[in-house]
Amino acid sequence: MSTIITRSRITPTMWMVVPLLIVMAIGFNLPIIMMLAKSFVQDQSFTFANYIDLIEMPVYLKVLVNTFKIAAITTVCCVLLGYPLAYWILGLSTRWKIICLAAIVVPFWVSILVRTYAWIVIMGNSGIINRSLLELGWIEAPIQFLYNEFGVVIGTINVLLPFMVLPLFASMTKIDQRILSAAETLGANHVTIFWRIFFPLSAPALAAGAVLVFILTLGFYITPAILGGGRVPMAANMLDLLINQMPSWEVASSISVVLLALTIILFMFYLRFTNEEKAR
Amino acid sequence: MTLQFQTARLPESAFQLDLLTKKINRLLLAGIGIAVLLFLILPVFIVIPMSFSESSSLRFPPEGFSFRWYVRVFSDASWLAAIKTSVVLAFLSSTLALILGSLGAYGLVRGNFIGRDFWQSNFIAPLIIPSVILAVALYFALAYTGLLGSFAGLLLAHTLLGVPYIVLIMSIAIRSFDIRIEQVAFTLGASWPTMFLRILLPNLLPSAAAAWIFAFVTSFDEVVITKFIAGTYETVPKKMFNELVLQVNPVITAIATILIVISVLLMIVAVKMDQKSKAILKADN
């Protein structure tokens, strides 16, 4: 590399990074560091009290556990729904592939607020499902789909499923069809071919997608706020409360730091899985 | 499938069983696939017809046909103010992000850096970190500097959110643009500004436009950070969110439909631009 030769002098091209560097440092790195510092301070002295509070106060622990639970449920559902969808699209003709992919990408570009609102129309007490069931006489009173965990999970899956399906599909298209043909030639039936060859080859992309969905659910704010109706507290909504309603900044920063650390750790796994896939 | 004559050597019954299960599995898979796809696009197809409803109930299919909710949006001063704030904010922040991000991407790609990957991931980090964490951090920092609830603070936050898209898209575009073309321009006596205006800009413009649109839409769509730091400023998503939490209001369907139409149009433009830039870069190679 020519790095060794030019390392000593700063070329004009390198100055071009400086404005961005300054803005990022002021607007991003510094605030994150400030938050980190704040989480270790109480009454102007260094302490771990803010973190001990998280474990000892049942309120905080309950919300954190609840967040992980919803993230886990969402991730499992996205795996179970996303994999068959990607696999099905793979077998379609080029034209239908494009139509299906467009159907997955378009909601991506529609505001989360709009998509969340639609679920009120669909699943609300006077929504489509409940009114249809009532008219058919199958139920006596509307079923409570919203303002509970079920509603939040449905809304979250709907928003995050494309994050799973799109990379998974891209990885599936890269699997060499000749390997599958070779297995067929050697007498394997298609169930064996799928489970022994195709699935293991697509597993890293599936794992990467699952980790991504999990990370994104951890910080979800809008869907729990609207479809949970305040009854399904998740970490992000608690942060909102701690900052905007009852100023408790130190605890808010310790929760943020925990979430941030988790995100970074999980993202490392995500990178490992995607690298594994590239190396394949 | 092209090799079926080989598999035919299997005992006849086993082969037929395999074919049968294959058929059943295909049907099952198609059923699941179509159901999941419908689940994904259902919300989009619910909201658009609702916006033309005559009544204020949430009934679907909507009753009657009218533009009353659209009229309501455009005659309500607070919605108009929110639209104006959103457009100005998205325009300024995406433009700022484009300038900073493109310069940064060029420096990163063409310069010799120690820890280039580190800087690159630092610039992309706002995309990966949950926005609520960034919201908390920015809240503290802006409160500390007294910029909480100011337009400047909002602009800074939205610029940060646009930077990752710009850096990602522009890095790819710059990397695939042959550096020798730039060197030839210098050899032939072009100054830096000339080279930039006559060589780089025309070639990178489609990518830059696509990246700008990404940043614009990101800013226009942002709720969480805006809600934490905007103070009295109302953007369209913030106002929508606040109304959704309080009550279900059909005006939102009209706004939503307008947003869907604009985002889909912008997406088509962005994709077209990206294809064009790829075509240019291919022609160069």
What's this, in brief?
The complex is a heterodimer of chains A (280) and B (285). By secondary structure, chain A is mainly alpha-helical. In chain A, 78% of the residues lie in helices and 1% in strands.
Task: Write a structural description.
The complex is a heterodimer of chains A (280) and B (285). Chain A is mostly helical. Chain A has helices at residues 3-6, 12-15, 18-38, 49-56, 58-90, 94-108, 112-123, 128-136, 149-173, 177-185, 190-218, 222-227, 235-245, 249-279; strands spanning 41-42, 45-46. In chain A, strands 1-2 form a two-stranded antiparallel ribbon. In chain A, strand 1 and strand 2 form a beta hairpin. The radius of gyration of chain A is 24 Å and the shape is globular. In chain A, 39% of the residues are buried. Chain B has two domains: 10-50; 76-284, MetI-like (MetI-like fold). Chain B has helices at residues 4-7, 12-50, 68-75, 77-110, 116-128, 131-145, 151-175, 179-187, 192-221, 224-229, 236-246, 251-284. The radius of gyration of chain B is 26 Å and the shape is globular. Mean pLDDT of chain B is 86; it is low at 1-8. Chains A and B meet through helix 2, helix 3, helix 5, helix 6 and helix 7 of A and helix 2, helix 4, helix 5, helix 6 and helix 7 of B.
CATH architectural name of chain A: Orthogonal Bundle
Helix content of chain B: over 70%
CATH class of the largest domain in chain B: Mainly Alpha
Number of separate helices of chain A: 14
CATH class wording of chain A: Mainly Alpha
Distance between the termini of chain B: 38 Å
Strand element count of chain B: 0
CATH structural architecture of the largest domain in chain B = Orthogonal Bundle
Low-pLDDT stretches of chain B are 1-8
Unreliable runs of chain A, pLDDT <50, ≥5 residues? Answer: 1-8
